[in-house]
Amino acid sequence: MKVLLATQNRGKVKELQDLLSGEEIEVLSLEDLDHWEEVEETGSTFAENAAMKARIAAQRTGLVSLADDSGLEVDALQGAPGVYSARYAGEPKDDDKNNDRLLQELEGVPEEQRTGRFRCALVIAAPTGEEYLTEGTVEGRILNERRGKEGFGYDPLFYLPDFGRTMAQLNLSQKNKISHRAEAFRQAVPILKEFAQRNEKA
């Protein structure tokens, strides 16, 4: 069975395919399609944005489709930047500027109040209209300065107390084991297996 992960990020595709190792499920990406019009993310939550992308992908391709949306929620900022994580400092997207703005917004906030989490919402949508939502989170704290060169986005500021380092100080395989997206993907695996079993019987 073929499923579509509505992304152009080959890393995400590999991550999901690795979790489905041994299954008769092939993960395609938007790069495997001839033409794809970008879906505008207008939802007020990660789940709404993910559902929008997954539904449209399923309708356009006739394949069981997955889409995710994720970002950073900071408690002292009432959940911001949230769905605006990628464009926190405005257009065009710029990780450095986003991190600078986050540091400015948290200036003077004491360490114990700088808590937050990365959250990922993943929606699986079938052409029949069936939909499933899985979510993953990873809790941490926002530092006063960047640490580490790995990763992207807010990783250099996101400190993991259990590891004693930031997300940007973990290598890719370490990050993929604990990340919010990895958790959401892991929860999606049994759902995709169920679709594959039904597909075999059809």
Automatic annotation (TrEMBL):
GO terms for cellular component: cytosol. It holds the Pfam family Ham1p_like. It comes from the Bacteria. Gene3D superfamilies: 3.90.950.10. The keyword Transcription regulation does not apply. Keywords: Hydrolase, Magnesium, Metal-binding, Nucleotide metabolism, Nucleotide-binding. CDD domains: HAM1. Mg(2+) binds at E40, D69. This is dITP/XTP pyrophosphatase.
